[in-house]
Amino acid sequence: MWLYLLQGIGYGLAAASQPGPFQTYIISQTLTRGWRRTLPAALAPLVSDGPIILVCLLVLSQVPVWLQRFLYIAGGLFILYLAYGTFKSWRNFNLQTSQPDSAGNQSVLKAALMNALSPNPYIYWTLVTGPILLKGWRETPVNGIGFLAGFYVTMVGSLAAIILVFGVASKLGPKVNKALLAVSAIALFCFGLYQLWLGIMGV
Q1: What values do phi and psi take at 64, rounded to 5?
Q2: 3-state secondary structure string, 40-66?
């Protein structure tokens, strides 16, 4: 089991640290709502990944091209929507006021929806981690459970660390906070356009 646990830790760290729309989203939420209100969003993969893993294991390495293209397009549109929301937060940012209040459960649900609409977890669990989980589970369920435990404990912990780091960065001053928010909006916009392009072109 220890081998699968270590693999899960390694892949969980890699999944959390790779720059992407989800990571950019939680950063933008940290800058606008604060790290305390955004921290629950680190749990989003636990909400959205269950059905994704099940689907990917059932159709391992055989995801239809049309479904992958649809996921890219749907995810791209949703990311553009989030980019627009981040842009509005930047435009209306008041250097004299504190961060707006926001319910933690809304942060989790929105982050989970974004993760579910992104093709990245589907591709990741189909081509990378899915085969490892399936092999371990066939050997003994303990191996599969160990892999999942290592993966998600590390991933959630790493996402929480990202939120805390940018939460500290936002305390450097409102001007820095607003600048980081602008960077987040631009990054989300680029990610959204890129995913739309992948879906339309069928890359």
Answers
A1: -60, 145
A2: HHHHHHHHHHHHHHHHHHHCCCCCCHH
Question: What's the pLDDT score for residue 149?
Answer: 94
**pLDDT tens-digit map of 84-139:** 887 887 887 665 444 444 455 566 888 888 778 777 787 778 767 877 888 888 88
Quote the CA–CA distance of 36 and 44 in Å, as a whole number: 15
Cα–Cα distance measured from residue 185 to residue 8, given in angstroms and rounded to the nearest whole number = 31
Phi/psi region, residue 101 (left: phi>0; alpha: psi -120 to 50; beta: rest), is beta
Token representation of residue 66: 């049309």
| Domain boundaries defined on the chain | 2-201
- How many whole angstroms separate alpha carbon 59 and alpha carbon 65? 12
